[in-house]
Each structure stands twice: as structure tokens, then as C-alpha cells.
Amino acid sequence: MTDVVSIWTYLAADPLVWLTLTLVAYILGDMAFQASGRRPLVNPVLLAVAILAVILRLTGTPYATYFEGAQFVHFMLGPATVALAVPLHANLGRMKGAALPMVAALVAGSVTAMASAVAIGSLLGVKGPVLLSLAPKSVTAPVAIGVSEAIGGLPTLTAVLVILTGITGAIVATPLLNLLRIRDWRARGFAVGVAAHGIGTARAFQVNDTAGAFAGVGMGLNALLTALVAPLLAPWLVSLFG
Asked: Which of 127, 140, 190, 207 could be cross-linked to 197 through a Cys-Cys bond (beta carbons 3.0 to 4.6 Å apart)?
């Protein structure tokens, strides 16, 4: 056992180990997702996070050590976001035709996301900086963390809430939209992008290319609107519900 611990201590210091484990965890999650018949509940991101959390817990590895090795994946978030321009360009004509409904849905979705989070948190007894941290939970992580810091929230808590929001949205979006009998792929995708940012957008692309393209638009526009509105709206919501 001592030899095993010594070997692991040596390997854990190599950043490549954590990058490899991250990729393997996602591959295992995706295999389970495919084997389940692509059921939303078997979300590959959720499974990958769970696998990595167990590994970090069992090995006693600090998150900082893990992130040092897996930061290449974090870096690739930028190029992956830029790559959304390809399906966006392919659906540009359809987006122009739906510009007004998209603006209305954006405002309604963005404000509802912030207001509902703060209201529910307040009803559950959440106060102060923790309550402020809830407001930007529906936008992509880099923007949410910056907004949280600007309004006096806790950026690290916001980052966790963003991931939970994205995973939850990716799981419930398809059955919920089916239950509501929403058939328009544009509406379905845009709603998921506004509510569940990048993880929801990835799920939308798995279902339909048009939905994925509109989800990408919703994610980007919601990030922009939240960054502009949250510093003004969030403190007012906290004072209202708090």
C-alpha cells in the first residue's frame, strides 16, 4: 500500500495525469449516455463531474492541483465558443426573421432567471453575498464569475451554481419542452441557451442542429444582457425579496 501511495503521489504531480483523467471521465460519461439511448438524465458532463469528484476525494487531491493539470480543457472553452459561429452563420436568415420574438424572450428569460433565483433563495433563508451569488447563475461561467464579483457575490459559489444550473437545464429541458408541446426548434434552442448556457447549448446540439444554433445565440445574448443589467437589478432584487 505504501508503494501504491508513493507511485500515486509521483503521478499526481504530473499535469498530464489530470488532463487524461478528465478526458477519460467524459468518455465514460458519454459511453453511458449513448448506452442509455441518449436519455437526458444520463448527462455525460454530470457523470464526468461525479467521477472526477470521487477521484479527487479518494486521493485527497486539492482542486488547485487538479486544475493545474486540466486547465487546457478550460482554455479550449474559448475556441469552442467561437466555433458556435459556424452553425450561427448557417441559420442567420432564420434568426433575422425571428429577431423581435428573440429579443422579447431574451429579456423575459434573463430577468426571470435572476428574479426567480433571488426570490427562491430568499424564501429559503439565504442572505447577503450568498444571495447575490445566485443572480447570475444562468449565464456562462466566465461572465457569471465577473458579474458575481461586481455585485458583491461569491465568485466561487457562483461558478458551482452555474455548473449545476447548466446540468439541470440539460437534463430537464427536453422532457419539459415536450410536455409543454413546444415543437419549434428555434424556440426550444433559444430557451435552453438562455436558461442553461453552454451545457444546455451542448445538449441542444445533440438533439437538433437548429436548436443548437439558436441556443448558442441565446447563451451569448443572455451573457451580454446579464452583464449589463445584473449590477443594477440584483441589488434591487435582494432588497425587494430579502
From this structure: 140
